[in-house]
């Protein structure tokens, strides 16, 4: 059985949750006797692919900030994927994003579509940059797909709410913990504050950073030894710097880049609390990552986070700064609660293994081939 993955999510991105998902799948399948795969990709700066032996794309790092160059390589990658599709040397096609360029090329070959979230459907009008126009493309792909993999029950509910799709062809396959690396625990190579609350990833749009900062500021003003560390997501924008300065907490709010998994593990492991105030996520990998590193988590209620953290998390209403503030103070000022949350988190993590994600995805492929 041979699966063909296309170029989409690996074009123009160095990192990202979706490219990490497909990278981890292919890593799990490499050397597996039950499956062959091919990644149709010629040009990429994706860091996950840097040291793999199944793909050797040409890197163009020196031109990464040039939109015209990115567009050119995207077109060349699409042409390469289209050629591979036309040759038909595969049993299953699994596109890595939602563009429909391949619909007239895949023929009658079985197709699997992984659906990551309904952010553009729920918040596209509020934040057009999320891709309000993606909905039409997604609908086309949902109609064509033989099986749709949803990364969470919450995302499945969203698919059924916003799209016309046969529920019977949706399979929920939760993501796994890609940060399951015990050898990284206990390292202390980073210079970090003694006490800090951690925010990880992008801070714009639905990530709800502004409300979170408004909730965090009065805590920081009252507790001068406490810090907020924002990891990854790029350096603070001018607008974020303005908000931080106006709040009077500029000496206590720090940015820290994420160089690799070793960096990320230390950031989680040494934090008093990880806060994830997103309005919505398709799954919420950082919640799982934090718990695997023994970091208590405070998250938005009524999202996919409930499926991951269950009783291991403290919950708040994302649009209420008072609710967020109350949740943060509840955890950081109680050593007993922090200990309980760490233990509950450790108990949740084994339910989400990367190997299980790969195994269940392989079962989906086999179901299609044997149909």
From TrEMBL:
InterPro entries: Glyco_trans_1 (IPR001296), Glyco_trans_4-like_N (IPR028098). Residues 15-176 form the Glycosyltransferase subfamily 4-like N-terminal domain. Residues 192-348 form the Glycosyl transferase family domain. The keyword Transferase applies. Keywords: Transferase. GO terms for molecular function: glycosyltransferase activity. GO terms for biological process: lipopolysaccharide biosynthetic process. This is Glycosyltransferase family 1 protein.
């Amino acid at each position: 059985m041979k699966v063909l993955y296309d170029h989409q999510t690996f074009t123009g991105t160095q990192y990202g949750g979706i490219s990490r998902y497909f990278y981890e799948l292919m890593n799990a399948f490499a050397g597996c006797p039950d499956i062959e795969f091919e990644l149709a990709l010629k040009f990429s700066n994706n860091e996950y692919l840097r040291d793999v032996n199944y793909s050797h794309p040409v890197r163009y790092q020196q031109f990464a900030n040039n939109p015209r160059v990115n567009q050119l390589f995207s077109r060349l990658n699409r042409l390469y994927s289209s050629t591979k599709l036309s040759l038909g040397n595969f049993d299953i096609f699994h596109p890595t994003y939602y563009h429909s360029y391949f619909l007239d090329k895949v023929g009658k070959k079985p197709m699997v579509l992984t659906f990551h979230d309904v952010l553009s459907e729920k918040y596209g009008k509020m934040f057009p940059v999320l891709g309000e126009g993606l909905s039409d493309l997604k609908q086309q792909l949902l109609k064509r797909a033989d099986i749709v993999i949803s990364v969470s029950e919450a995302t499945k509910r969203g698919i059924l709410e916003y799209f016309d799709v046969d529920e019977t062809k949706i399979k929920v396959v939760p993501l796994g913990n890609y940060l399951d690396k015990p050898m990284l625990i206990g390292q202390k190579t980073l210079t970090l504050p003694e006490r800090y609350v951690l925010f990880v990833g992008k801070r714009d749009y639905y990530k709800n950073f502004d409300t979170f900062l408004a909730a965090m500021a009065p805590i920081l003003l009252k507790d001068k030894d406490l810090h907020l560390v924002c990891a990854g997501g790029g350096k603070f924008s001018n607008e974020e710097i303005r908000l931080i300065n106006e709040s009077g907490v500029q000496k206590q709010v720090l940015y820290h880049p994420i160089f690799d998994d070793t960096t990320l593990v230390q950031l989680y492991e040494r934090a008093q609390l990880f806060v994830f105030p997103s309005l919505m996520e398709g799954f919420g990998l950082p919640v799982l990552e934090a718990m695997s590193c023994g970091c208590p988590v405070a998250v938005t209620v009524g999202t996919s986070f409930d499926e991951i953290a269950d009783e291991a998390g403290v919950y708040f209403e994302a649009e209420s700064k008072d609710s967020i503030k109350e949740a943060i103070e509840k955890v950081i000022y109680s050593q007993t609660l922090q200990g309980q949350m760490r233990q509950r988190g450790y108990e949740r993590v084994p339910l989400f293994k990367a190997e299980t994600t790969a195994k269940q995805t392989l079962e989906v492929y086999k179901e299609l081939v044997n149909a």
